[in-house]
Specification:
Helix content is 75%, strand content 0%. It is an all-alpha fold. Keywords: Membrane, Transmembrane, Transmembrane helix.
């Protein structure tokens, strides 16, 4: 390059600038190039500072980048999801009732678990195991005790029947009661034009037939009873096993479900709180009603002269949980016993007391306790219990109010999120049209 002294582009001398690097990377050794670079450096504008790119913010009206860019990808994901959900349901279908009961126990016994966690200085696993052990003892010990007492009473009753049959006192007693019943009922049967009972009844053969059929029934159902008891123990173990992990991870699991819900955080919290309140109210109402019925039933048996009133009152506590029949499975035989004894007045008194007082407790107190935090009409709660038992079986006395609570929560969300804005917009349009007029 002519006119340049002291440096050459692409040369090999001491002042040469290599071709592969820009000259600005090397200091000028003098001459015109150095003067030119100095002038250019004094006149060059300073470079603008590099600013970081703003974060990606979703702007309404602009769709974010999709993970499924094609229709086939969306279809493939949907099909796979449906298949996985179906087979997941098929896997746990047999244990859905146990899982639901574990949730019931989890929500109900959570205060006890929290107290034990504080007492054990934050040892959550130990507190969970201890809570499950306490629950198991509260269920198994009364059940085994009750079964033992019933078995003992059944053996004593069978022994008394055998002794009465051998001595003949049972036949004489039954003949006297049947004659009394025959004389009392002949008037009403003749008035209703119904056939009268025979004059002679072979009591011994009748009792022998009853005992034979009863022994056959017990023998044929003994295996089914043992199988059912084994199934009950296995289900109880599974329920407590699931409850153990719910105490440890239940809140996190519910939080993950809330994240998957498209509803707002407030709506999700309302649904979960209503479900928890309903489950607690259902279980506690069942326990309270059962103990009240057992206490009143035992008191009635004592006042009206039924023997072993304390025992039958205790048996009435778990019997009141049985759907439809409830405690009547215990007090109706007590009424029959008093009738057979010839105590007509006390029998009618026991019938009226148990039928009205105990029945009213079951039909009125239970729905009142089941209202929970929401002012649900009592008739709706009662229908939810009866309909749940009719459709789901015994578990329906919890599932019925549970589904009713979920329905009312969804209706509340619908009213607040859809109906209220629509009504407000309609009122605004009406006000605008009125102002224009």
């Amino acid at each position: 390059m002519r006119g340049m002294t002291g440096t050459r582009l692409g040369g090999t001398g001491p002042g040469a600038i290599p071709r592969d690097l820009p000259p600005a990377n090397y200091p000028a050794s003098g001459g015109a190039v150095g003067q030119q670079e100095q002038e250019s450096s004094t006149t060059a504008k300073p470079e603008a500072p590099i600013r970081p790119e703003p974060p990606c913010v979703f702007i309404p009206g602009q769709e974010p980048e999709s993970r499924f860019p094609t229709q086939f990808a969306r279809l493939f994901f949907g099909v796979i999801t449906v298949l996985v959900l179906y087979y997941s349901y098929a896997i746990i279908k047999s244990y859905l009732v146990d899982i639901f009961l574990a949730l019931v126990v989890f929500f109900t016994a959570k205060p006890l678990y929290r107290v034990l966690t504080r007492l054990l200085f934050g040892q959550r696993a130990l507190a969970s195991a201890l809570t499950c052990l306490i629950l198991a003892l509260l269920i198994i010990v009364p059940l085994v005790t009750l079964v033992g007492i019933v078995a003992k009473q059944a053996l004593e009753f069978s022994s008394l029947l055998g002794q009465g049959m051998q001595s003949g006192t049972l036949g004489q007693w039954l003949n006297a009661k049947l004659v009394l019943f025959k004389n009392y009922s002949e008037h009403y049967l003749s008035y209703l034009k119904l056939p009268l009972p025979p004059d002679q009844i072979k009591v011994e053969s009748l009792v022998q037939t009853i005992l034979t059929n009863a022994s056959k029934f017990v023998y044929s159902n003994a295996i089914a009873f043992l199988s059912g008891f084994t199934t009950f123990i296995l289900d109880l173990a599974l329920i407590l096993f699931v409850t153990f992990f719910l105490f440890l991870q239940g809140d996190d699991f519910i939080g993950e479900i809330k994240k998957l819900s498209p509803l707002s955080a407030a709506d999700n919290e309302m649904i979960v709180s209503e479900m928890e309140a309903t489950i607690k109210a259902t279980l506690w109402s069942t326990v309270v009603v059962a103990f009240i019925q057992g206490f009143l039933g035992g008191l009635a048996f004592f006042l009206f002269g039924v023997p072993q009133a304390a025992f039958w009152g205790t048996v009435m506590v778990p019997a009141s949980v049985i759907p439809v029949v409830g405690a009547s499975i215990i007090w109706v035989p007590g009424v029959i016993y008093l009738f057979l004894q010839g105590n007509w007045t006390t029998a009618i008194g026991l019938l009226l007391f148990c039928g009205i007082v105990i029945g009213m407790i079951d039909n009125l107190l239970r729905p009142m306790l089941l209202r929970g935090t929401r002012s649900t009409p009592t008739v709706l709660v009662l229908l939810a219990i009866l309909g749940g038992i009719s459709y789901f079986g015994m578990i329906g006395f919890i599932l019925g109010p549970f589904i009713l609570s979920l329905l009312l929560s969804l209706l509340s969300i619908y009213e607040k999120a859809i109906l209220a804005p629509a009504k407000a917009q309609e009122a605004s349009l009406a006000a605008t049209s009125e102002s224009e007029k």
